[in-house]
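Proteins fold reproducibly. Look at a concrete instance:
___
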Amino acid sequence: MTPNILAAITAVIIVVFIIDLLRRGVLKEKYAVLWLFFAAAALFFALVPSALYWLTAQLGVETPSNLLFFITIVLLVLVSVQISYELSRNEAKIRRLAEEIALLEEKTRRLSEPTDE
């Protein structure tokens, strides 16, 4: 099996996997678009390897594999930053909700206490 065929099969499997995650509601659309875009790009370069060689020559990179590794590293860094951003935002929301719940519980406790009148 040639590397191009293996890459094409892998890209198709990734597309099917992402679509299945979307269909089951496990993955949100805003994340799936990025993954589908990169899987489609991988499929394109697997089916048209001359495009990868052309892009490599235009960017002045010595070998196509170096370009693919660089793009992959950049992608992973961007995904990590996005996940860190989402995590920080969710932590702030959770903290605010916990504080609101504590205030509501205190208010409920005060209202349920018998008054000494």
Observations:
- The chain is about 85% helix and 0% strand.
- The first helix runs from residue 3 to 24.
- The mean pLDDT is 89.
- Residues 63-117 form one domain.
